[in-house]
Design goal:
Layout: E1 7-13, H1 20-28, E2 37-43, H2 50-60, E3 65-70, H3 76-86, E4 91-94, E5 99-101, H4 105-114, E6 120-128, H5 134-143, H6 146-149, E7 161-162, E8 170-172, H7 173-179, H8 190-200, E9 205-216, H9 221-241, H10 248-267, H11 271-299, H12 304-334
Helix pairs in contact: 5-12, 9-12, 10-11, 10-12, 11-12
C-alpha cells in the first residue's frame, strides 16, 4: 500500500480569537491521519486573545502538531510564504482563520492531487455569518449571492473542472519551486495572481465541489467596506500586470461608481443630472430589492429586504472606489 503523503496546513492569522478555535477543532477532526499532518500558523502579532486560544488548544489536544511563527510583516502573502518556509509537508493546503473545513477536506485534497486533477486544487465555500446579528446575516447572504460575487463559482453551485481561481487552494511543494511563492507586493488578490502564474505556466487550477469549507464572512458593514476597498485597490495593481485576466463582473463596480460620482457632482448644478441620478439609484436598488424579495420568500427572513441591498451596495461601491483610487494613484505616480 502506498504511503500517504505528508501535509502541511498553512494559515495566515491576525486577531482571530473568535474563529481560530473552530478552525483548529475542524482540523483535529479530519479523516486524514493526524500523524501525517502539521499546522503552521503565521500570526501577524495578534493583539487579542488569539495566541492564548491556540496555546490552550495545544495544551489539551497534543495529537495535532501545531506551530506558531511570528509574521512581523503583518501581511497575508508574507505570512503565507513564511508558513510555507517553516513547513515540511509534501502537499501544502492553505486555509484561512475565518474558515472551517469539513472532516474530509484534507483527505479529498490529497486524493485529487494523487489523481492528478490539477496543480492547485480547491473547493467551494458555504458562507455563514460571523456574528448573530441581522447585519452579519445579511452580509453572509450577500457574499454568496450572484449579484454580490458575479460568476465566482467557488461561492455558487459549481461543477468540477478547470477554473481561473479557487479559495485557499492546495498544491505540492514542487509547484512553489517551479513558479515561485506568493507575491508579497500584493496585499490582496495574491491568490488570484498566484493562480494566474500557474495557468500561464501551463498548469491547471481545479475546482472540486466535494472539497467544502465554511467561511465566516465579515460581521459589520464597516469591516465589509474595508475588505472590499482592499480587494478593489489591489485588484487594479494585479490587472496592470495581467490585463487579460479582467472579467466583465470586475469592470461593473468601477463603472457604476464613476457614473454615480459624476451624476452626484453634476446634479449640484444641472437639473437633468438629478433625474439621471434618481433613475440610476432607482434602477439599481429595484434590481436588488427584487433579488431580496426572492430571498425573503425562500428564507422567511424579512430583514433581508433592506439588509441584502445595503450589503451588496457596500460591496460594489467600495470595491469600485478602491479600484479607481488605485488607478488614480498609479497615474499620478507615473505621470
Amino acid at each position: 500500500m502506498t504511503e500517504k503523503p505528508s501535509v502541511s496546513i498553512i494559515i495566515p492569522c491576525y486577531n482571530e480569537q473568535a474563529t481560530i478555535h473552530k478552525l483548529l477543532d475542524a482540523l483535529r477532526g479530519q479523516t486524514y491521519p493526524l500523524a501525517k499532518m502539521e499546522v503552521v500558523i503565521s500570526d501577524g502579532l495578534s493583539t487579542d486573545g488569539t495566541r492564548d486560544v491556540i496555546a490552550n488548544f495545544q495544551r489539551y489536544q497534543s495529537d495535532l502538531s501545531i506551530r506558531v511563527v511570528d509574521n512581523t510583516a503583518k501581511t497575508i502573502p508574507a505570512g503565507v510564504n513564511q508558513a510555507i518556509r517553516e513547513s515540511s509537508g509534501e502537499i501544502l493546503i492553505r486555509l484561512d482563520a475565518h474558515s472551517m473545513p469539513i472532516p474530509e477536506y484534507v483527505e479529498r485534497c490529497v486524493s485529487a492531487h494523487l489523481e492528478g486533477r490539477g496543480d492547485n486544487i480547491g473547493g467551494v465555500w458555504e458562507i455563514r455569518p460571523s456574528r448573530e446579528t441581522r447585519t452579519a446575516e445579511s452580509i453572509a447572504f450577500a457574499a454568496a449571492h450572484p449579484l454580490g460575487v458575479g460568476d465566482a463559482m467557488y461561492r455558487l453551485n459549481a461543477k468540477p473542472g478547470a477554473v481561473d481561481t479557487v479559495p485557499f487552494g492546495s498544491f505540492r511543494r514542487s509547484l512553489i519551486e517551479r513558479i515561485g511563492a506568493f507575491d508579497e507586493t500584493l496585499l490582496a488578490n495574491e491568490d488570484y495572481e498566484f493562480n494566474t502564474r500557474i495557468r500561464e505556466s501551463g498548469g491547471v487550477v481545479w475546482l472540486e465541489p466535494s472539497i467544502r469549507s465554511v467561511y465566516f464572512s465579515r460581521g459589520t458593514l464597516y469591516k465589509l467596506a474595508e475588505q472590499y476597498w482592499r480587494y478593489g485597490f489591489w485588484k487594479f495593481k494585479m490587472l496592470k500586470r495581467y490585463p487579460r485576466t479582467l472579467r466583465w463582473r470586475q469592470a461593473l463596480p468601477p463603472i457604476f461608481v464613476i457614473i454615480l460620482a459624476g451624476l452626484i457632482v453634476l446634479s449640484l448644478g444641472v437639473t437633468f443630472a438629478r433625474y439621471l441620478l434618481a433613475l440610476q439609484l432607482f434602477s439599481y436598488f429595484f434590481v436588488l430589492e427584487i433579488a431580496s424579495l426572492k430571498l425573503v420568500m425562500k428564507t422567511k427572513k424579512g430583514f433581508l429586504l433592506w439588509g441584502l441591498p445595503i450589503a451588496i451596495a457596500t460591496m460594489h461601491i467600495f470595491w469600485g472606489a478602491g479600484f479607481l483610487w488605485s488607478g488614480i494613484l498609479s497615474m499620478f505616480k507615473h505621470g
